[in-house]
Design brief:
The chain is mainly alpha-helical. It has a domain at 229-284 and 302-317. Helix content is 71%, strand content 4%.
Amino acid sequence: MPQYVHKLCLIFLVFFLSTYSIEMSFITSVFVILFSYRSRMSLSILQTIFLVSAVAFVGLISTFLELHYTLIDIIKDIIYFLRPITILSASYFVVKNIKSNSFVFNVVVTMALIFASIHLLIIIANIGNIDSYVYIRSLGGKQNHIEIVALVFLFFTPYTTVFKKQRKLITLIITLSVILYFSRTMFVILFLYFLGYKGYLFLNKRIIKGTIFFILTAIVLGVMISKVETNRDSTGIRKFIYKTQNSFAELFESVDVDSIKRDRRILWEHWRAYEAQKAIDQVKKNGIKAWLIGLGYGSQIDLETRVYLDGKFFTEVPSIHNGFIFVLFKTGLTGLFFYLGIIIFMFFKFQRFRTINSDSVLNGLIISTSLYVFFNSFVIAGFYRPGEFSLFIFAILLASQEKIQTIMKGS
């Protein structure tokens, strides 16, 4: 295939990954594989594809043993679990086929710049109506991970951009857009990549420094935030601080249905923990088979209450925010074992114990990606969530690194 075909494939892949459409990103990634497939793959990508595929395969086994869910729900879940495999493969193949690493960098940065500019223009157009950070988030969405990937490239990789003279301006625009999403998740992800870039995630003396730095930063921020007096009725920036203060409770402290009936506001303050608890309760009710291989594709989490989500009322949902519990619910402990294996593999496979160079910088960023998956698995269903870029950035970093190593061996 000529270079322009692979370049177009990358552009379409990045765009549809950024649109939060599971179906379109899945279809696009399948087409990219068809156009960019190559039989020669490294052991690292094969091992990663195997682990991601193993999770999906366990879900298929569980589904065949059930066969009482509606067909449309089964098909949706199959696509949901196949999609990470196709995105991982498509990203790797297309980048391996594109000769220039800088082109990959430029596509990501350009796409992020477009989304960031649109985001900022929407906010500017409605600036007279802004009365809270909640309204700002309603204008541009809660997050856009392509902008985080772009900042990772701009801050932490050696690649040059076609907009060399405007690099600082582009970085400023994307950074401002990221800040105005008011996304705690995006801030943490960028910090994790900073640690990886600095080499603080390698298993040597530097990881001790990195751990101390992380803990001290968390303590300082935690103390500062805890000193601010807020409540659920706070407005403006205090509303954002209140959500930050409530982060642990939202993720890990569930509530019972009776408390929700007394005050519905309690549910949203503990929403992620509540839905995760309902999923675990359902697994318990279904016995040993559910614990081993889950409830399968098409299964729904019974919320035991009526909730209003995305403009509709639901009493059950097909997915939840906690990626670990989501995988457990669909594929059991077996699927969760493979899912954790993906994170562990990414973290330990790319450890390097030598001085900092371009190769070890890319290794550091790949290790950061393992923590990206780990952290996202607590808050937005890991790499199963549409709009999440961890497997994409892992694949393109790995493919780029392999191309650099091939060039170095040949020189």
